[in-house]
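Dear colleague,

As promised, here are the two records you asked about, laid out in our usual form so they can be pasted straight into your sheet.

NAME FIELD: protein one
SEQUENCE, THEN STRUCTURE:
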Amino acid sequence: MKAPHIITLALWAFGIVNLFEPFNGWFFYLASGIFYLLLIAHLIECIIFRNKILKSQDTPLVAFSMTLLFGVIYLGSIKES
């Protein structure tokens, strides 16, 4: 796994842990902000790059899931045909 993948997954994990077991103080707001920022940004990417995602060699479920998790990191790996 490459460093950008690890960093992205760590940020997602930080936010998701905060959802199930909220942190105290400013750490809560930081984790919530990171989580919702990632979620909104990646959902927007799914909408904007819908056609590119559907043209990938992965199934639509896998392609949209990977875009939701990794965003432009995954989109950059899709080969143009």
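NAME FIELD: protein two
SEQUENCE, THEN STRUCTURE:
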Amino acid sequence: MDGGQLELYSLFINIGVVVTVALLLVLLFVTFRTFRSLLLVFAYGAVLIVGQYVSAAVRVINDGFLERGESLWFAMKNLIGSHFMGHIITFMILFYPAAFLIRGICREVFGFSLATAQDTFKAGSLAALMLPVQHIFNRLGCYSRGCCYGIEYHGPFAVSFPQNPEVEHSVFPCQILEIVCMVLLLVILIILFRKGRDIVGFALAGFGITFFISEFFTENPQSIKHMGLTNIQIISTVCILISIFYVIFIEKIKAFFSKRMEDTPEKDQ
């Protein structure tokens, strides 16, 4: 039944949200050993809420809305479509401002120090670990519904989706490709985090590379290409370049924010 497939798709997405938020709560407490740090999960919640609108924008951009002169604002407002790259972009833009805002409110309004600036950056790395976890569930949902399917393919590991009437032939399992990439990315991020590295830039690079490669195997007749690249691939390329900048200059970025947002000694006591 189509309704059953759609329900399974939504189930996977919602399970992913619950799992990632729960894992983040556990990681924040284990890392900082205080329940106060759990308030930083609201920064991740802001990413999830705002990210769905940015994800809708990324989807319709890839589907050629801008080239056809259609309203991007209408697509965002009505959440037409979704692409997880929107959540990645939102995370890069929103997480740290939201985290530092929450930190400042706790200090100035409620009179307690939530976390040091360095700990706030570490919370960002913990939140970045949740992104590939969420996307694994996203693609499991896509696989169950037969959406975001691959190009026509009849070789090893070819799959078919009888639940999707648009797919009348076997296709490349691009959903599984992205799941494998996310597992590998998660392992790499965990290793880097355990070595004390800031992993936000690496997470952005991993998603950019994954989506860039996956687009070559994804079927999307509406997709508009420029210089042989889809809009998603162009966005992914920009994200990869930003991630390189971020990884190179992360310590200077941290020093810049820490100098301006660090607690005074009197308020830390």
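A couple of things worth noting about protein two: The longest strand covers residues 225-226. The mean pLDDT is 88.

Best,
R.
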